[in-house]
């Protein structure tokens, strides 16, 4: 998977052809990432003004569309990893959009690349996803924690 392209917004088409998945440099473009950046600016401003921060980021974000998942402890960890990640974010849509942007002349490609970033739809991150394990599996528990999800 490749997300950052030398010479952006002009992506190397030959390099993209070698990638299983390619995206238009959308790292940090999740709703959580964008709001986290705004929250950091807010915190810094409050500190500069010597005022307490009265707004919490969690109060501003909408409820995630996938808030909790249950996994059987006997499930295959690779399957669980794929299911958890794709349940929150499936990069295949971004890959398809990115590949469509690589058609046409160079000027069209550059405009399409920029448009994909500027019009990026809201998506949430896996951090904070609640995962219930039905049974005991330290391997799955470790995987869930490594992803940033929360065992419940």
From TrEMBL:
<dbReference type="InterPro" id="IPR024531">
    <property type="entry name" value="Erythronate-4-P_DHase_dimer"/>
</dbReference>
<feature type="domain" description="Erythronate-4-phosphate dehydrogenase dimerisation">
    <location>
        <begin position="60"/>
        <end position="148"/>
    </location>
</feature>
<dbReference type="Pfam" id="PF11890">
    <property type="entry name" value="DUF3410"/>
</dbReference>
<dbReference type="GO" id="GO:0046983">
    <property type="term" value="F:protein dimerization activity"/>
</dbReference>
<dbReference type="InterPro" id="IPR038251">
    <property type="entry name" value="PdxB_dimer_sf"/>
</dbReference>
<protein>
    <submittedName>
        <fullName>Erythronate-4-phosphate dehydrogenase</fullName>
    </submittedName>
</protein>
